[in-house]
Design goal:
The chain is an alpha+beta fold. The chain has one domain: Orthogonal Bundle (Cytochrome p450). Helix content is 45%, strand content 10%. The strands form 5 sheets. A 4-stranded mixed β-sheet has the order 1-2-6-3. Pfam families: p450. This is Cytochrome P450 18a1-like. Keywords: Heme, Iron, Metal-binding, Monooxygenase, Oxidoreductase. InterPro entries: Cyt_P450, Cyt_P450_CS, Cyt_P450_E_grp-I, Cyt_P450_sf, Cytochrome_P450_fam2.
Length: 427
């Protein structure tokens, strides 16, 4: 015999108990058989109870317990975390098409509700057309080629003057960039001439006209494509250089060795050029170690499974959100002994005076969603860093405490604020 309460309070208690039981059951129910294991988490609180301020290091600790592919309760959904070079390569490269989509998240919805642009767009035919068009068009204007060197050098001269005059650089917010891009689109449209394509915006307007507006190049779409290009070309380069200065002031002996190599190869009468790069292996190795140690993108941008697939021997249902822990590649003690130590010799073959390559190194991610501006970023980082080391000596102010190398996680992982003394080398 089943007892059914008749008074209102008892009935509400019963309904709440049944609802709580249902929520708890759904919370702990795996999305499919042979789904990756992971920490339980509690309803409502989910897996956030396992994380402090350094989410990337906490996730790496969980991988030690649950393996390179494990699951986490994230709100009402269950996501998977992928760590370690083998599992990440399987996810991004070997099964790149299976995991090439982007999930819908509230953070993206706040400023890009239709997932427009290149970086956050869903992996469909329109997105593939946008990316292919953007890549081909930018390359036609010299993007990622050595012919961009003169333009980069103009920016470098401006930066060096900034150092000399000790003026703080203005950092634009995302809203500033969006406003600027919208303004540029409007100005280009007013004077657009399909017979004179002068830049990327002109090329997009021409493509839209060519296809009678059927192509996926609305003003908003073009705006977010421009914002993505700005972000890829500024945020990562600037943050890497800030880490570079920190490591140089903490390791003056490495800074001097870089300068001595530059002085020997380049001399004092000109700035380093891309042609010098092959003759500056220690400088290049130092820059690679800055990227590894700083690891400014602990996570690749989130992915999502496009279809039912497998990863690391586990079943992954279509629609599952995927977090790629790039930090685990760059801080794996099995690959990089004493990973917290800054040591350019990891990338430098002293016997042959060459740069050592490593497959355990993915500062630009990999696969179908690899950073489109990787080659340009490499050129910019080399030219900026070598010019700074060639022209200036960077030291800590006398009597100040050594800054720590623990980063603060935002859009990228940035070092905590520190002070630097800048002194010209050639006066």
């Amino acid at each position: 015999m089943i007892f059914v309460p008749t008074d209102l309070v008892s009935l509400l208690v019963l309904l709440m108990t049944m609802l709580l039981a249902w929520i708890t059951t759904q919370h702990y129910l795996a999305p499919c058989k042979n789904f990756p294991p992971g920490p339980w988490g509690l309803p409502i609180i989910v897996s956030f109870m396992y994380f402090g301020s350094d989410i990337h290091t906490d996730m790496m600790k969980l991988s030690k317990k649950y393996g390179d592919v494990y699951s986490l309760k994230m709100g009402s959904h269950t996501a998977i975390v992928v760590s370690g070079v083998k599992a990440i390569q399987e996810c991004l490269v070997q099964k790149g098409n299976d995991f090439a989509d982007r999930p819908d998240t509230w953070t993206i919805d706040l400023f890009n509700p239709r997932c427009e642009g290149i970086v956050r767009g869903h992996f469909d035919n329109k997105w593939q057309h946008r990316r292919q068009f953007a890549h081909a068009t930018l390359r036609s204007f010299g993007f990622g080629k050595t012919c961009m060197e003169s333009k980069i050098c103009e920016e470098i001269l401006f930066l060096l003057d900034e150092f000399r005059s000790n003026i703080k650089t203005f950092i634009a917010t995302r809203k500033d960039v969006e406003k600027f891009c919208k303004q540029q689109i409007d100005e280009h449209r007013e004077v657009f001439d399909p017979n004179h394509i002068g830049d990327y915006i002109d090329a997009c307007l021409a493509e839209r006209t060519k296809h009678n507006s059927k192509v996926d190049f609305t003003d908003d779409q073009l705006k977010f494509m421009l914002v993505d290009i700005f972000g890829a070309g500024t945020e990562t380069v600037v943050t890497t250089l800030i880490w570079g200065l920190l490591f140089m002031v903490l390791h003056p002996e490495i800074q001097e060795r870089v300068y001595n190599e530059l002085d020997q190869v380049v001399g004092a009468n000109r700035l380093p050029r891309l042609d010098d790069r092959k003759h500056l292996p220690y400088t290049e190795a130092t820059l690679l170690e800055i990227q590894r140690s700083g690891s400014i993108l602990p996570f690749a941008l989130p992915h999502r499974a496009l279809r039912d697939t497998t990863l690391g021997g586990y079943n992954i249902p279509s629609g599952t959100a995927v977090t790629i822990l790039l930090w685990s590649i760059h801080r794996d003690p099995n690959t990089w002994p004493d990973p917290d130590k800054f040591d350019p010799m990891r990338f430098y073959d002293e016997k042959n005076n060459t740069v050592k390559k490593s497959e355990n190194f993915m500062p630009f991610s990999a696969g179908r969603r690899v950073c489109m501006g990787e080659q340009l970023a490499k050129h910019e980082l080399f030219l900026y860093f070598s010019a700074m080391m060639h022209q200036f000596k960077f030291t800590l102010p006398v009597g100040t405490k050594k800054p720590c190398t623990e980063g603060v996680l935002g859009i990228t992982l940035v070092p905590k604020q520190y002070d630097v003394v800048i002194k010209e080398r050639h006066t």
